[in-house]
Amino acid sequence: MKKTAEILLDMLYPKKCPLCHQILKEKNSLVCPDCFQKAIPMKEPLCMKCGRPVRMEEEYCQDCRSGVHHFTEGRSIFPYGEIWRQSLVRFKYYGCREYGDFYAKAISIYGRKYLERWKPQMIVPVPLHSRKKRMRGFNQAAYLAERVSRFTGIPWSDNLVIKIRNTKSQKKLNASQRKKNLRNAYLVTRKITGFSVLVVDDVYTTGSTMDAMAMCLQEAGAKDVYFLTVCAGRA
Q1: pLDDT of 160-182, one tens digit each?
Q2: Low-confidence stretches of the chain (pLDDT beneath 70)
Q3: CB burial of residue 166 (10 Å; 0-12, 13-18, 19+)
Q4: Cβ neighbours for 230, distance < 8 A, ≥ 6 positions apart
């Protein structure tokens, strides 16, 4: 009965490649072979703080040299571009949740060396305000966090950090406006003294979201706050 239901679901809602959006011929694949070859992860040299690409002679990007970030360290798996923008838009707003399985698998594989070094004890998604979550239908970061937890075995929590203020969209704000927009937006629901926490989200841009998450987690007792995201965009 279960197998019949799965066959019907595949017929009605066939899985699509997260990058070219064509129907996947292989049922168990997360991405088509051509796009797998094109999905090239970030390569060294990378900023030692936020993981953005830097010149060979640089240890830190200009953003990390000029400002103080509250997170301990972070990395993004892929460089943000038009292909990834379209993919993430479909994932977040058009019901292509299966794309998140590929993103999470990529995070768990290409981020493994960082996870082995950081040794986080818990994975936490960047939360959505309840009103925005109702409108969107789900929290894309929570979907990623749950899948990354499944692939890595690291526990995750969907309610450790909640968003208590419904902020403006960050897309059209500059770095300083983003920081102001997220001030006092998050709340940690319990003490996590001495914990090492990994924050998961879809895109890293200016770092304002990760800083806001890190600040509230550190106030609740977290020792270290790291992050992994699918992509890194321009600051």
Answers
A1: 999 998 776 776 677 778 777 77
A2: 1-13, 168, 171-172, 235
A3: exposed
A4: 76, 77, 78, 84, 88, 103, 106, 107, 144, 201, 202, 203
- Whole-model pTM: value is 0.91
Sheet holding 196-204, edge to edge: 73-79, 224-232, 196-204, 122-125
Short-list 200, 218, 203, CA closest to 171: 203
Judged on CB neighbours under 10 Å (0-12, 13-18, 19+), 170 is middle
Q: Which two tokens stand for residue 233?
A: 């965009």
Q: How far is CA 205 from CA 70, 99, 146, in A?
A: 15, 21, 22
Cα distance between residue 83 and residue 181, in whole Å? 28
Amino acid in the structure at residue 233: G
